[in-house]
Amino acid sequence: MDKASLRKKYKTLRDQLSEEAIDNFSLDIANQALQLPIWEKTNYHLFLTIANKKEIDTEYLLQVLAGKDKNIIISKSDFESGELTHYLLTDNTRLKLNNYGIPEPIDGIQIQESQLEVVFVPLLAYDRKGNRIGYGKGFYDRFLAKCKPETIKVGLSFFCPETEITDIYEGDFPLDYCITPSKVYTF
């Protein structure tokens, strides 16, 4: 299936999820994450949930990272340049919703992409080869292009993978893992 069709399908599937289902699935995903062989790393990038898009609630995963005393890095989007700037999440970090409903740091200690060891990647859909589809703006593909090749890319999804995304292009970055409420997929 092509990206446009999959975006439409998975936006509809997400819209059908209740708040209770999102909460339960999000907790299950955080628990499944504990199975991954990634916990010896130090610097973890985590996206913050866009609640109005019924995304996975990453608060549970954030608590896992904080409980393991990891450095948590979050981003701020520049919609003019299509780039993300990354900041260390601390007790003093102040967040503000941007015009798209994305919680973002107002300021803080900036972190370079080369320092990131694990990136939790938002997605709408993915396939059995680890190819992913986001919202189509390319923020994460541009971001992942700046990370070290050995940076571990972990998708988070409420759903199982599609068989194949037919219109993958050279600039797409495949995942190493994808965590669902019931299973971790390895690519």
TrEMBL record:
Cofactor: Mg(2+)
Coiled coil start-end: none
Gene Ontology molecular function: any one: 5-formyltetrahydrofolate cyclo-ligase activity
Residues that span the membrane, as ranges: none
Entry EC number(s): 6.3.3.2
Metal-binding listed as a keyword: yes
Name of the protein in question: 5-formyltetrahydrofolate cyclo-ligase
Source species: Myroides pelagicus
